[in-house]
Amino acid sequence: MYADPKLQHPQLARAVVSAVGLYDMVRFATDPNGAFNTTEYGSISDPEQFKALYAYSPYHHVTPKTAYPAVLMLTGATDGRVNPMHSRKFTAALQAATTSGYPILLRTSMKSGHGIGSSLSERIAQMSDELSFLFDQLGMHWKAGGGGR
What is the pTM of this model? Predict the structure, then answer.
């Protein structure tokens, strides 16, 4: 059974930030770094492992006409470890399926992959975008010198 509460029970979250994930577990092995990951995740060549991969593949469990929360997906255009196509496909699937009216956004860093290979300025820009998204979606306000309300 698929265990991601944002897909099984999207009403549990109002806003989600999801960074550089593997979202299509059925096709991850075809990615440039995918064959290396089959030792950890399994292979679709094995029927039992295919069932397990499919069962927790987020991309395959997006349900049409569902009120998904606001989502900000993060990926890197040159990420050698996690193919940015995962985030692109998953974002498109959520955009097509949602009925909530909340935004489903994709932020792509053009200069880096993710993690330790990102420059300090890129990490600061990404964190600023994440916090801005969450503040906006959660109705948070900030006052200079007085903090939030």
Answer: 0.86
